[in-house]
Amino acid sequence: MHDLRMLREQIDVLRDAVRRRGAGDALLPVIARGESLDRERRALIASVEEKKAERNATSQEVARRKRAKEDADELIARGRALGDAIAGEEARLADVERALQQLLLEVPNVPLADVPAGGEEHNVIVKTWGTPRDSTGVKPHWDVMAALGMLDQERAAKISGSGFVVYRGRGSRLVRALLQLFMDTHVTEHGYDEVWPPQLVTRTTMTGTGQLPKFEDDAYATRDDMFLIPTAEVPVTNLYRDEILDGAALPMAFVAYSRCFRREAGSAGKDTRGVLRTHEFDKVELVRYAAQDDSDAQLEALTRHAETLLERLELPYRRKLLAAGDTGFSSAKTYDLEAWAPGVGAWLEVSSCSTFTDFQARRANIRYRPAPGEKPRFVHTLNGSGLAFPRTIACLLETHQQPDGSVAIPAALRPYLGTDRLA
Hints:
This protein is 41% helix and 20% strand. Helix 2 (11-20) packs antiparallel against helix 3 (24-67), helix 3 runs antiparallel to helix 4 and helix 5 crosses helix 12. The chain is α+β, with helices and mostly antiparallel strands. The protein has helices at 6-9, 11-20, 24-67, 73-104, 141-147, 153-160, 170-189, 203-208, 233-237, 295-312, 359-364, 389-399, 414-417; strands at 124-129, 193-195, 200-202, 220-221, 226-228, 243-246, 252-261, 280-290, 317-321, 333-341, 346-355, 366-369, 377-378, 380-388, 407-408, 421-422. The strands form four sheets. The chain has an eight-stranded mixed sheet with strand order 1-9-10-11-14-8-7-2. The model has no long low-confidence stretch (mean pLDDT 96).
């Protein structure tokens, strides 16, 4: 969410931001409507204050006349008329403020200056690691999983419908091993505080991180207005909602495992084979709170923590800086980490690492006090996958498969899986 002052003092920044995102046609009228509402809001506030001052003066004069035994009927009537006018304007002011707050929830974050303008065709590869395996003769992960009894999509469809998977045997063990490797690395080496959050959250919590109102149709909702989380970012970012933190405690870092639920995944028959696109999947999420002047460095650190796991899994990857039009609604800057999957011949996104500047913190009212006695500021929030399981599994099985159909296990994962090979 944006500071209301942007509509008055930096409206050109907002206009430029939506143009860079390629959303000018849809959002420039919204911004213009916000500017109009803000003008009306300020005019109403001034009018109400003026009328209240007049009413107070009238009340004082009525009291004086009554003490002096003078006629005050005309002034009493004037006071009543002012009261009615104030009530009407305050009601309108409440409507305008609600409309303005709702409108601000619909305007995306401002991309940072180094984010390229335009759509996905303007994304930039800023780093590569490892040598991608040639795709010749490499089986797709769904064939490997079928041969090794790791996946049961038919029974998953029977119990839950399309877009769901059941891991079996070695598949289940692999998921559990990856979870332990990811969590142990982030907690013991990268210094994250481990969190095990709820997977059902309130509407307020979803709104705090920007999932609502924009993405409500993509969320799984319950009849009591609770939501299954699309990512652990949602509950973890909201941990300190409506609180003021000690600036000396920043940066703060949290890591959480969760199931993630998304309606749109697997839509229109795209990527329905294997585990590439499902409605429910596992992910380890990294969340950081930072001081305003430290968020750039924190994004680099968080992204590097996710890259470390790809290197330990010996998966060639690339870091991609997303252009403004391909950057998420709440994000100011995003790096996607894509690992190579030779069996499907594609780079697959396994992590998305973002800084949200103070956009989420304003929605969730998360602040910090830089020093004792100083005015609180909004924190900068960041998050990234560290890592998402399904596509990591696909890349692992395709990159490390052997001619005999087995899969060699990278050294870092062997202690958790208890073997050096899936066969």
